[in-house]
TrEMBL record:
Its main location: membrane. It is a multi-pass membrane protein. NCBIfam families: 3a0107s02c. InterPro entries: MetI-like, MetI-like_sf, Phosphate_PstA. PROSITE patterns: ABC_TM1. This is Phosphate transport system permease protein PstA. It holds the Pfam family BPD_transp_1. CDD domains: TM_PBP2 (cd06261). Residues 61-263 form the ABC transmembrane type-1 domain. It comes from Maledivibacter halophilus. The keyword Transmembrane applies. GO terms for cellular component: plasma membrane. GO terms for molecular function: phosphate transmembrane transporter activity. GO terms for biological process: phosphate ion transmembrane transport.
Amino acid sequence: MNTRAIKDNIVKLIIWVSSFITVGILVWILAYVIKNGISEINIEYLTTAPHGEEGGIFPMIISTIYIVLLSVIISTPIGVCAAIYLVEYAKPGKIVRLIRFATESLAGIPSIIFGLFGFIFFVTILKFGFSIIAGAITLSIMVLPTIVRTTEEALKSVPNSYREGSLALGTSKLRTIIKVVLPSAIPGILTAVILSVGRVVGETAAVYFTAGMGRGIPTSFKESGMTLSVHLYVLAKEGISFNKAYATATILVIIVALINLSANRIASRFRKTNP
């Protein structure tokens, strides 16, 4: 066996070992959390409000759903349209460099800074108060770079022959983007949304400073609401109940897993209809 073959085998071994270590760490963390939290989960825990060490997390589930849906609704159209402009319309120059610089800068800002900005601007200056809408807008700004960059790569992966064929048939550029390019890029756009939802669901600092810690079920977006991640943080920080904290973490894991599975199913259907 020559030297090149030996080096290739060593590299393959390192890749396989690294992959197994990564998967093993993930499985270990999930198993540890679920093992400690599954015993606390029951119908009462999922359908009642918290009171001290007792009660459940139903208001937190509703608040989390509200914030996730609202932040995705706000950020996805903006992010997708920005990516379309960068890929389909923009010419290399100062404006494109400025947009990319702003996107990279936003992606590198710690979440606590977003939380402080949201608290000062949305909660205090705009007088939204601690509310679902303040938290959702703050989180939509935070996940915007992820949507822009991932959607941009998805649009770039669409073959130029699709665009050229559509334009050759006399279709306008806008209609080509809507009818040809976007359907082909849907799996990548869904990936961007999945990544954004995962970050929103697991975010604590930005939500703590903007959405507040309301323990009731919010009846409007102007009311305060505690998400599952904030509830988990409070349970662990104040030492109220570590078993309840593990149970909340288990619910978070299940929610993220369901979102990922649903999005993957939708993406696979789009791949079949747009091979």
